[in-house]
UniProtKB/TrEMBL annotation, chains A, B:
<dbReference type="InterPro" id="IPR012340">
    <property type="entry name" value="NA-bd_OB-fold"/>
</dbReference>
<feature type="binding site">
    <location>
        <begin position="425"/>
        <end position="428"/>
    </location>
    <ligand>
        <name>ATP</name>
    </ligand>
</feature>
<comment type="similarity">
    <text>Belongs to the class-II aminoacyl-tRNA synthetase family. Type 2 subfamily.</text>
</comment>
<keyword id="KW-0963">Cytoplasm</keyword>
<keyword id="KW-0547">Nucleotide-binding</keyword>
<dbReference type="Pfam" id="PF00152">
    <property type="entry name" value="tRNA-synt_2"/>
</dbReference>
<keyword id="KW-0067">ATP-binding</keyword>
<feature type="region of interest" description="Disordered">
    <location>
        <begin position="342"/>
        <end position="361"/>
    </location>
</feature>
<comment type="subunit">
    <text>Homodimer.</text>
</comment>
<dbReference type="InterPro" id="IPR004523">
    <property type="entry name" value="Asp-tRNA_synthase_2"/>
</dbReference>
<keyword id="KW-0030">Aminoacyl-tRNA synthetase</keyword>
<keyword id="KW-0648">Protein biosynthesis</keyword>
<feature type="binding site">
    <location>
        <begin position="226"/>
        <end position="228"/>
    </location>
    <ligand>
        <name>ATP</name>
    </ligand>
</feature>
<feature type="binding site">
    <location>
        <position position="377"/>
    </location>
    <ligand>
        <name>ATP</name>
    </ligand>
</feature>
<dbReference type="InterPro" id="IPR045864">
    <property type="entry name" value="aa-tRNA-synth_II/BPL/LPL"/>
</dbReference>
<keyword id="KW-0436">Ligase</keyword>
<feature type="binding site">
    <location>
        <position position="218"/>
    </location>
    <ligand>
        <name>L-aspartate</name>
    </ligand>
</feature>
Amino acid sequence: MQPTQTTTLAPRVLARDLAAVPHGEPATLAGWIHRRRVLASVTFLVLRDRSGLAQVVVKDRETVEQLAGLPEETVVEVTGIVSTNESAPGGAELVEPTVTPLTEPAAAPPTELWRPTFGAGLPTHLDHAAVTLRHPRHRAAWQIASASMRGFRSALGALEFTEIATPKLVGTATESGANVFTVDYFGRTAYLAQSPQLYKQMLVGVFERVFEVGPVFRAEPHDTVRHLAQYTSLDAELGFVRDHRDVLAVLRLAIAGMVEAIGEYAADAAALLGVELPRVPDEFPVIHFSDALAKVGADPDEPDLSPAHERALSEWAKTAYDSDFLAVEGYPMGKRPFYTAPEGYGPNGPRGSSGGARGAEPPVGSNSFDLLFRGLELTTGGQRLHRPSDYAAAMARTGTDPAVLAGYLDAFAHGMPPHGGFAIGLERWVGRLTGAENIREVTLFPRDLHRLEP
Amino acid sequence: MQPTQTTTLAPRVLARDLAAVPHGEPATLAGWIHRRRVLASVTFLVLRDRSGLAQVVVKDRETVEQLAGLPEETVVEVTGIVSTNESAPGGAELVEPTVTPLTEPAAAPPTELWRPTFGAGLPTHLDHAAVTLRHPRHRAAWQIASASMRGFRSALGALEFTEIATPKLVGTATESGANVFTVDYFGRTAYLAQSPQLYKQMLVGVFERVFEVGPVFRAEPHDTVRHLAQYTSLDAELGFVRDHRDVLAVLRLAIAGMVEAIGEYAADAAALLGVELPRVPDEFPVIHFSDALAKVGADPDEPDLSPAHERALSEWAKTAYDSDFLAVEGYPMGKRPFYTAPEGYGPNGPRGSSGGARGAEPPVGSNSFDLLFRGLELTTGGQRLHRPSDYAAAMARTGTDPAVLAGYLDAFAHGMPPHGGFAIGLERWVGRLTGAENIREVTLFPRDLHRLEP
């Protein structure tokens, strides 16, 4: 936790700072009534604010009666005397309180939020997210997400990446024709961007190194525990790389920044959820796709790794390298998007520079990778094609009309450096860290096939 | 400019660091051929990278001939000997170079990018943005935008705001029924969010202080120089405020952070564009709406300020307070959204708590403000209603069916603190700072009534 900041707001002590007030001095807390515990001779009021919980001891009969009319979640200001008390949470409590409601008495939440474990199922949580996100465990999961974004930006900012903001409304859905939402755009059809991929590449031509943290949209027609119709993508792209290994090195720095920021800004949240932060090694261990297939005993012609393969490979990396991360490189070109660079791709275009013939034996590998984290694919990244003639070949190979990508192909015709990048799914990262069974548990107001509310 | 960071990428000297290499030592630059100047006995090659420009002196005939085949914008690596030379830009140049192209020779850009002033009109720029954004003046404008986002987050992070990511696909368009894009959402109709307003309020109930930097969407049917179909909104919302003045104080800190970050991370860009950074006063001067009308000689019944009024008021603030900023508070309730708190609004609901009767004489003012910056409305903000009964009254007054906002109203029924917030339009901010005549000049790939490409 960082130190309290002063603002010009009303004087108020945060729950976590109560013990720093000298014993016997007055103090004002403000927050939500987290819990009332009525005993025979005393009522304990637990107050929740953004910093945590504080205990208020109520003995005065009038205040005890007042509290009977102020249910849990009512927002109040409480002024009293600080009493140092080792048995109180945080080492201090407020006594002789005056309680002032700041709004009307709260309605009862769908489940008691003060219980350490969230007491209702996922549908109840999602239907009432505005209230149930207040449960400390839900709140903590997003605090980890927030800190992760901060760490991602901080790491890339230190490497002179420029933050970009790219169009979410696009005229063509050619990056991947499937699973795209259509928008009525002033009477024309537009699409919601599935990723900032094409724009971040174009902007490497302007800024060399760019990143974007923003929403991406997938009209995912399947109801799974790990897909959403909108999620937050942490995207980066950089120029003047030798190959995908340079991209992987930057990905490692970004993830190290994310882990560090969780430790700095969300340590309490991580502790509450029992999150064990991963050690980020000096280099991610790397295995080639064909070796990975062999390692898990899969058919050498398999074009992709199954979830079971990913889990097995992660276990192997944990044993062999004591690493929670494993990069798999050299995926077959056939399963990768058209802008993917083949293995051995360079400025002067050696092996595979035509984009890789499909069905050749053995299949042409790519300069791309997946990063596995604790058994799950967290990130896809790699080197991209950068020569205009390679794009022309890729268009021809995939039967894409270059006219629909004219604005994008412009960048390559006018000079682009060797480059590559990656994208991390924020919610997937947090889900894996916290061990959530369903990605919706760690998403604010998730969107899916069935859910557009709240 | 911050110091160069080391990564594991290929050894390369940035243009701005060339003079730090000892005279006579070898160095490798990499970047775009910005300009070739062919004189009788020497060819000057100006190389552009993310840090700026560097000069390369070519005397060797073979290299001169090679350069004839490498047009401007071709990406090259240049290895040579550093020569300290006071007449060279930056104080050093590279001599005896070996030039290695990193891609194919570039096609000619739509206008020469090396000329100090961008030589084509706005339509040409926007049609070829992937290339023309490379012009140093265009690039500089976005570097100011990027630094501004960084400063915004840094200021709010220091105040313990939690970053949020809210749905851009929403089920109801009730915040403002007009100018909304519709999306085919798995066979249902969804809308693109016009702002994160309702979500950031709900999340004040979870985190107290939240911010989001993200895209917002307006189906703006008018072709103006200051509206876009998508722009970047810097949104903040915080709880436990006394009134809108506390919100304004945080807005001031956010803007101070933005200005400071431009000075720290985009000073060269600001200098190139002749941007005079505003002084951020210790407090923004504030004028009441009714006094503002009187000051500009407008009819006291006017419900809003015209652009001409805003300019006149800004001029007055500059003269009276030496301030580029002026907050106008107390706008009539009638022109503000339903969640706006009326003047005098407090936890215990004094004057105007019903939301303000329309047509009353004089009209009920609101606890909201506009912030004018150099003649233009930059930000709208203010205090919101927080009591459930006030929302019930506002729903009734505006004829809104509470059922369509059920998920939002949930937050208030279950206890919300007094709160407020604001939103800054990023592109509008940068446009005003740089003196752009059209907001499209400072937007990456703008979207409007006519434009969905590139």
